[in-house]
Amino acid sequence: MSKRKQKKEIPLFCIEFGKHIRALRKEKGLSIERIAFKADIDAQNLRKYELGKQEMKISMMKRIADAFEISTSELLSFDK
């Protein structure tokens, strides 16, 4: 009997938050690579966050907010 690793369902908030990050990045004319570099994260992970395919820890939200040069509360201010 094989055990398959079940995919964890991503909460709707994470999906919407990812869309918000992408919209903010495009609005500022920044590439995924640029924000990833500034946040000191892998661009592939940032892409997963933007696409809502991976949950994000609060510490990562802080790093992304810093990369955008805004506060975490500003980053979290979006229509959910």
Automatic annotation (TrEMBL):
Keyword Transcription regulation listed: no
Regions annotated as coiled coil: none
Domain HTH cro/C1-type as annotated: residue spans: 21-75
Domain of life of the source: Bacteria
Key words of the record: DNA-binding
Gene3D superfamilies, A to Z: lambda repressor-like DNA-binding domains
Cross-referenced SUPFAM superfamilies: lambda repressor-like DNA-binding domains (SSF47413)
Pfam family, one: HTH_3
InterPro entries xrefs: Cro/C1-type_HTH, Lambda_DNA-bd_dom_sf
Protein name per its UniProtKB record: Transcriptional regulator with XRE-family HTH domain
Species, as recorded: Mesonia maritima
